[in-house]
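Continuing the series of single-chain predictions for the mutant panel. This is the parent chain; the variants come on the following pages.
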Amino acid sequence: MKAAFIERPGPPEVICYGDLPDPKPDGSKVLVRVEAVSVNPIDTYIRAGSVPMELPKPYIVGCDLAGVVEEVGPDVTPPLDAEGRQIVRLAKGDRVWCSNQGMFGRQGTFAQYAAVDACWLYPIPAAVASTDAAALALVGITAHLGLFTHGKLRPGEKVFVNGGSGGVGSCVVQMARAVGASVATTAGNDQKAELCRKLGAELVIDYRREQIDKLLGDFGPIDLWFETLREPDLELAVRHLAPRGRLILMAGRDARPVFPLGPFYTRDCSAYGFAMFNATPDKQRAAALQINDWTARGLLKALIGKVLPLSETAEAHRLQEEKTLLGRSHLVGKIVLVAP
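Parent structure:
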């Protein structure tokens, strides 16, 4: 099969595109014919070696995929709900998506075929394209875990998310609106601001030209602050948290921001840090099935900024780094690659 892989960590140029043996669906694994994958910041960190992990050699890059079941391993038992009903059907020909691959010794997804443990696979709704399913995978589960598993978001509350046109941010805006919350967000130009409004944000702040502090004050106390910036301003966040407000932190591995403890604890606020890949299969599946429901009903839409062939994985990683690390890209939406 064709695959994008590395033999050692390094810059995007270390990514090779060539032939590797087809994986085998032994044990509880399912062989998936990959149709689409998407690039996430964590993919570039693992490839660069800035997030050290034990990797197979060669290591196929990538976390997310969408595709079609080709073969089911002998020990696969599809998950059941509390009443014993089958939650996910896994049979040849079924369309499926997954995330959380390429980590903790698991092989990645940027290949024509992937062998994935059944616990990480979810059905793709009939009307949803594989490119959209791949684009929503990691960012959608991340947003859902932050809003609901950790943030316990309730209808009628106010949510703020930095960067409402980003991968996670755009999902936060749509999911919060889907459950009846009010959303404020930031954007860096008119195009991104208009997109955030179309996604459902009630307040969109141009952080390059407008005063975030004043406009958030006018919007009112924030019940759930979803921080996506790698260098967060926690003074700003805590200042605008409502009594018993929740602060969600999921980025900034090297960040050491000032934390205003006094105004935080005296208003009974809470802070939750999490990484989506630490969540159990059950928690990720619960998020995935809710994501499926919203995408099927048109309440959650993927933002795709660029589509490339799988052979251009190195270029995709370069574009992702320009966007995430260097801030030099005006690309809006996920980078998606399609397998041959």
